[in-house]
Design brief:
alpha/beta; Rossmann fold; 2 domains; globular
Length: 274
């Protein structure tokens, strides 16, 4: 059958969490195409994530999708929300695959880049997701960067697009905020370690088999990194943790309650960083 998997909105992580189900369809002998909302040009971030995926036959612009070309079109735009709002601990990759009509045994995403730039003794950092509820504060991010520069010999790969980070003058800083996703991923692929929040870069790190730690507040690590064998979690102790995007009356206490020292203590466990 000729399938089209369509998604009208989402982030980098959502695109990557589609890939286990797409692989299962391809392995079952189906021809799989993808329709995504931001495929405007060949430099688009979503296109860059999928262009080297051998399981994807063609990438369409969601806005102009002709459904008559396919035997089956599966629109997964909103399929995850009912599960998450109900508090069910099911990963989006599994939810997406179920909507596609396939089962998966591993939620690890697939992302293929052929090159890497090896940077010895390096840690890649990503502090800010697209939403405040999944992000650390700038103050905490800068404190972690300062500690790594002052107390370790690590080279730091900064993945966030952040003016304050771009202005840090230190030969051990590799700033990637001005690069497209593929060029930054080539550098990430050569890193020794990843530290970040629940964001697209966390999923890319898992796909590239980079060991590391991910920081969780409003999302539950069970629903994101259950099968990410090389990524551990720091999960907030806040009573409202794992709310899954419900309206917040506590100004995102889930992320505020995670301290810089808690993160640094986790980093200290890994001798490669010292």
């Amino acid at each position: 059958m000729k399938y089209c998997i369509a998604r009208a909105h989402g982030g980098i992580g959502d695109i990557l969490m589609m890939t286990p189900g797409i692989r299962a369809l391809a392995e079952a002998g189906h021809e799989v195409c993808v329709a995504i909302d931001r495929h405007r040009t060949k430099n688009d971030t979503y296109y860059e994530l999928l262009k080297n995926n051998e399981d994807v036959k063609f990438i369409y612009d969601y806005r102009y999708l002709n459904k008559d070309k396919f035997d089956k079109v599966v629109d997964i735009t909103s399929v995850a929300y009912p599960y998450e709002q109900a508090g069910l601990k099911i990963g989006r990759a599994t939810i997406f695959a179920k909507a596609m009509g396939v089962k998966i045994n591993d939620e690890t995403p697939y992302y293929n880049i052929e090159r890497k730039i090896k940077i010895d003794n390096s840690i890649a950092l990503h502090f800010f997701a697209t939403e405040k509820r999944r992000s650390l504060s700038l103050k905490k991010a800068k404190a972690i960067i300062d500690w790594l520069l002052d107390c370790t010999s690590s080279n730091l790969i900064l993945l966030d697009r952040c003016k304050e980070f771009s202005e840090i003058k230190n030969p051990r800083i590799i700033y990637c905020g001005n690069k497209n996703v593929e060029d930054a991923a080539i550098i990430l692929k050569g890193a020794n370690y990843f530290l970040g929040v629940d964001s697209g870069w966390m999923h890319i790190a898992a796909a590239l088999s980079i060991p590391g730690t991910a920081i969780f507040g409003s999302t539950d690590p069970v629903t994101r990194i259950k099968d990410y064998k090389m990524i551990d979690a720091i999960y907030t102790s806040s009573n409202c943790r794992g709310c899954f995007y419900r309206a917040c009356e506590l100004d995102y206490d889930c992320m505020k309650s995670i301290s810089v020292n808690q993160i640094i203590d986790r980093l200290k466990v890994d001798a490669l960083l010292l």
